[in-house]
Amino acid sequence: MQSLVLLVDTVISIYIWLLIASAILSWLVSFKVINTQNRFVFSVMSFLYRITEPALRPFRRIIPNLGGIDISPIILILILFFARNLITEYLS
Q1: Is this prediction's pTM over 0.85?
Q2: Span 24-28, mean pLDDT?
Q3: Which three-class secondary structure string do you get for 28-63?
Q4: CA 82-91-86 angle, 5° bins
Q5: Measuring CA to CA, which residue among 80, 77, 18, 75 is closest to residue 48?
Q6: Domain residue ranges in the chain
Q7: What span, in angstroms and rounded, lies between the C-alpha atoms of 49 and 22?
Q8: Confidence at residue 45, expressed as pLDDT on a 0 to 100 scale
Q9: Which of 34, 48, 49, 81 is placed for a possible disulfide with 22 were both Cys, Cβ 3.0 to 4.6 Å?
């Protein structure tokens, strides 16, 4: 059972890092630090969007617009930390 808990913990950790990478990349694109015309950048952005958007979409519908600040990744990361701690506490 502990192997399954470690696997779930690792998957949640990787997903948290993907959420952070997606947020940072979106900031870099918004401030025109990187160009989306670059094929590699576009591929990475597309991958991160397809991975993170299904989980972020429900939060974006509920949370009101805060003037261009998207806090849905922060809320999802907090929920994932809570779920990870809950899983390790009750299943370990």
Answers
A1: yes
A2: 94
A3: HHHCCCCCCCCHHHHHHHHHHHHHHHHHHHHHHHHC
A4: 10
A5: 18
A6: 2-91
A7: 7
A8: 96
A9: 48
At 90, the amino acid letter reads Y
Contacts of 34 (CB under 8 A, 6+ apart): 25, 28, 41
Question: What's the confidence (pLDDT) of residue 65?
Answer: 80
- In terms of Cβ atoms closer than 10 Å to its own Cβ (0-12, 13-18, 19+), residue 44 is middle
* Contact (CB, 8 A) for 88 and 9: yes
Report the alpha-carbon distance of residue 82 to residue 67 in Å, rounded: 27
pLDDT score of 1 more than 90: no
Tokens of 17: 């890092």
CB 36 within 8 A of CB 29: yes
Q: Going by C-beta distance under 8 Å and a sequence separation of 6 or more, which residues neighbour residue 29? A: 36, 45
Q: What is the pLDDT of residues 48-89, one digit of tens each?
A: 999 999 999 999 999 988 887 889 999 999 999 999 999 989
